[in-house]
Write a structure and sequence with these properties.
single chain; about 0% strand; 6 helices; mainly alpha
Length: about 120
């Protein structure tokens, strides 16, 4: 998650230097939009995991497949926060649900945003 936050900070400071926002603060909505873009790009760029990790993901996917969607979602978000977005994305993809992957993206943005607000790094919308 550190990489996501670093990229977020980089883009936020670039935007702050743009003429549109010069001498102004970015609003919380704009900050959340930037965070969503960074997470979206991270998900799109998620590469395949090494075979050993892939085997573990396949086993975990088999265990999660029959769980309610809410439980799957919470597990994916917890996994992303603990082991990284790439691992969680690979698991979400192995569950073969485009809906779940899309919902994971939105939920992860919301939870990460909430976490950054709690840590005082962002202002709440």
């Amino acid at each position: 998650m550190k990489e996501v936050y670093k990229e977020f900070e980089k883009r936020r400071s670039e935007m702050m230097r743009s003429p549109e926002f010069k001498d102004k603060e970015l609003g919380p909505e704009k900050e959340k939009e930037i965070l969503k873009e960074v997470i979206s790009e991270t998900i799109k760029q998620a590469e395949e995991l090494p075979l050993a990790e892939k085997t573990e993901i396949t086993q975990k996917a088999a265990q999660l497949k029959d769980q309610p969607k809410e439980r799957q979602m919470q597990f994916l978000v917890d996994l992303a926060l603990d082991k990284g977005i790439v691992v969680a994305v690979n698991l979400a993809r192995s569950l073969e649900s485009a809906y779940l992957l899309d919902e994971f993206h939105d939920t992860l943005v919301d939870q990460l945003y909430r976490r950054l607000v709690e840590e005082g790094k962002l202002k709440q919308i």
